Amino acid sequence: MERTFTYPISILFLTLIIKGSCDCSLNNINIGTRRSGREIQGKPEWNVTVINNCSCAQSQIKLACKGFQSAESIDPSVLSMTGDSCILINGNPLNGFATVNFSYAWDPPFLLLPTSSVLVAPCS
């Protein structure tokens, strides 16, 4: 009798551990912006770091960037605009705990916020 009760508990426990390790969301996409100290065409340059603070890769990361402008060019393979959204690294996966960086020049700085992403399976 004890054995039949132990197996379901073990399976439930392992399921919760596996599910918990890949419970990622937009809250795991963190964006930091800091001034570089340079000026481009009279505008301050800002260095942006996007971090995936989750063990799972996330792809199709979109940022709200309504009105986003830059006096310096940004590599479109890193950040490209489509309407009021920007897509990061052409929608390719940003691996768990990985970062992507880009710089732009404008005044004032833009508040870039993640609006959507897709979890990439399998997740470690």
UniProtKB/TrEMBL annotation:
It comes from the Eukaryota. Keywords: Signal. Residues 1-24 form the signal peptide. The keyword Signal applies. GO terms for biological process: cell fate determination. This is Uncharacterized protein LOC113873539. It comes from Abrus precatorius (Indian licorice). The gene is LOC113873539.
